[in-house]
Design brief:
With 386 residues, the chain is an alpha/beta fold. It has three domains: 94 residues, Orthogonal Bundle (Fumarate Reductase Iron-sulfur Protein, Chain B, domain 2); 148 residues, Glutathione S-transferase Yfyf (Class Pi), Chain A, domain 2, CATH 1.20.1050; 121 residues, Rossmann fold. The protein has 18 helices and eight strands. The strands form two sheets. Strands 2-1-3-4 form a four-stranded parallel sheet. It has a four-stranded parallel sheet with strand order 6-5-7-8. Helix 15 links the parallel strand 5 and strand 6. Helix 1 crosses helix 7 and helix 14 crosses helix 15. The longest helix is centred in the middle third of the chain and has 18 residues. It is globular, with a radius of gyration of 21 Å.
Length: 386
Amino acid sequence: MEPKNVSLEMRDYIAEMGAETINWCMQCGLCTNLCPWRLVPGETSENFNIRHMQRLGQMGMEGFEEESVLFACSTCSMCQSNCPRGVKIVDNVRAMRASIVGGGMAPANLRPILGSAHANGNPWSGPREKRTDWQAGLDIPAFGPDTEYFLFVCCHSCYDPRSTKVAKSIATLLKAAGVSFGVIGNDESCCGESMRKLGDEELFQKLAQSNIELFNGKGVKKIITTSPHCLWTFKNEYPELGGEWEVIHYTDLLKQLVADGKLSFPKAAGKKVAFHDPCYLGRHSQVYDAPRQLLGSAAGGDAVELGRSREMSLCCAGGGGRIWAEVPMGERFGELRVTDALDKGAVMLTTACPYCLNMLTDACNSLGKQDELEITELSEILAAAL
């Protein structure tokens, strides 16, 4: 084997980009053992080892920048949540990516995504003027000085035909409960969470500043998010940039509305439904009970728990920019999730995240199980049960 060079400059640069805890890692290997990549075969699984990647970062050694290493992490936080030293592994991954992407070396498949977010304010190549097309026929109110909540709809649910149904369902539920809410419209930009996780720090700052100026200028005080990714970044990353609001995921708000008697679900689904915990709603944001209580209200006694749930939920593989990755069949975490649901006798697998919805649907289709298992988003079950 040829010797590798230790670069203290590279190590310090990575730390400056946000990997402040990288030297806390004692190389115990628990992170690698818990990583969902250990559950599937294939080239990426063989190349990606989060413990080794951190070691390369600690030493400033080359090798971590290989695409199948650096961009394989889905930032699911399974490793971080269980790290005995409290290493902020997700931040380390983001910083290592930033050291590469900041130098103009983003992987080819991600350049159109980042380019669209720069040009259109969203990563889905959707024209800015079509951001509100999902509202057609729904009479969604505009946010104004007397509106209590600003509803921030994830870019995915603004542009993806399957995911726009989620935005419609959530708006329908809020209207049914008499919530004072409104949207701002085409001037909204992507929250930037995934862009930052991909390592494009400059793009994240641009999107965040644009949103902060817009929201503050409109007098926003409280935000409802449709996506756990928006929830997480608004709560954890925007405050230090000047965006300080009360932020709530739609499931937490609806749970409260049910408790207050403002929302009920008389038309129970009557199907065996399993709930998949999204990483960014569960492990990252600690929201576990609200979606289960809502599902219990709308599915009666037909809700079933998956084996890998709550804190130990299996990632769908869509976080950290992986939603834009091409992954061969047989190597998708989502396929394991679909099998988990079928093993429990579920006929429906539901979640509360647009990314998970996308990934689980693809996995179900690739396994040819779409006739046995329906993939839905929780808001769709709730709206149907009104």
